[in-house]
Predict the 3D structure of the following.
Amino acid sequence: MNFEYFIAKRLTTSKQHKSSISKPIIKIAITAIAIGIIMMIISVATGLGLQQKIRQKVSAFNGHIIISNFDDNQSEVSKEPISKKQDFYPEFKTVQGVNHIQAVASKAGIIRTEKAFEGVIFKGVGSDYKWENLEEYITDGRIPNVKNQLNAEVLISEYLANRLFLKVGDKFNTFFMKEDSNEMPNLRVFTIVGIYNSGFQEFDATFILGDIRHVQRINRWKSDEVGAFEVFIDNFNKIEQKGEEVYEQTSYMFDSKTIVEKYSFIFEWLLLFDFNIVVILVIMIAVATINMVVALLVLILERTQMIGILKALGANNWTVRKIFLFNAFHIIVRGLIWGNLIAIVLMFIQQQFGIVKLNPENYYVSEAPVYFNWLFILLLNLGTILVSLIVLLIPSYIITKISPVKAIRFD
C-alpha cells in the first residue's frame, strides 16, 4: 500500500480525528463541496434542458431549415407557390444528415365564433408531415387525418381554444381574405379534432394545422404546388453547416433559412444561458475551493507535531504534503458523493413531476426542463477534484516551512 495514502487513511478513520478541533471545519468543507456540485449539476442540467426544449419546439413547428421563394415576404403567409417537382423532394439525398423534408403552405385567416374572433395562420400540411414532433404537445383529441380525402379536421392550440371558447368536436368558421380586397372572403368551416399546448405562445397564439389542400384551393394553386419546404437534420449542432449545404444544393430561385436565422432573437437569448452556467460554475468551484483551503490549513495546524515527527524520521516535504492532499481528496470525494446523490434525486423528481414551474411568456416552457447528461456530470466532478487539488498545492506549501525541531516541541 502507498505509504502516504496509508497514513492519510489512518488519519481520517481514527477516533481521535473524529473528535478533533478540525471536525466542524471538515463538515463545513464537505457541505460546501456538496452544495457546490448540486448547484453546478442542476444549473447545467436545467440550462441545457431549456435550450434543448426550446430548440425542439421551434423545429417542431418550422423544421430546422426552411426552403421558400426568393421574395421580400417577411410574414408566415405563403404568397407564391413552389412546385413539388424538385430534385431534393421527397428525399434530400445530396446533403448528408438530412432525415426528412416536408411540404407546407400557410394562409392568414380570421376565426369567428358567436363569442369571439381571432386572427390566425392556417398551416396546411400533407401526408408527408412529421406529426411525431407535435404528438407530445397534444393535450386532447388526436391529430388530423390528412392522408385520405380532403376533410375539415384541424388541430388548434389550447390558447386559441380558450380564447374562442371551443373544445374538441366543435366547428368554427374561418374567413380567408382574397388578394382583391373588394371580393368576398373565402369561408371554411373546420372541425376541431385535437388541441395542443406547446407552451410557446408565439406559435400557440398563431397556428392551426390542417389539410394543405385547403390552402391550394383557396389560392387556386395546382395540387403539386406548395408554399415552402421544411427540412429536418440529425444534428442540431451542425445546423449552420447544413443550412449552407442546403442553400448550395437548391435552385437560385429559392431561399433557404435556418431557424437560428429566422428566430435569431430566441437563439441569441439562449446563448446567455451558456454564460450564466459558466459564471455559476466558477463561483461554486471558488467557494468550495476556499472552504477546502481553510480545512487543509486547520488540518496542517492540528497535525504540526506529526509533521515534525515524520520529517525527523526522514520523510521529505513532498511526502508529507501528499499525506494531506490525500486527506483533502477524501474530504472532496465525500462532498461530491453527497452532492451528486442529492442533485440526481432532485433532477429526477423535477423530470417526473415538474414541480418547478416557469412562466411560458418569458421562458417558452411551462416547467423547468431537465437534461440528464452523464458525461457532463462526470466532467463536473473530475473538474472539481482537479481544480481543488491544484489550488490546495498552494496552502500545502506551508509544510515545507515547518522545522522538525520546533514542530515536535509545538504545543
Summary: The chain has a mean pLDDT of 86. The first helix runs from residue 3 to 13. The chain has 14 helices and twelve strands.
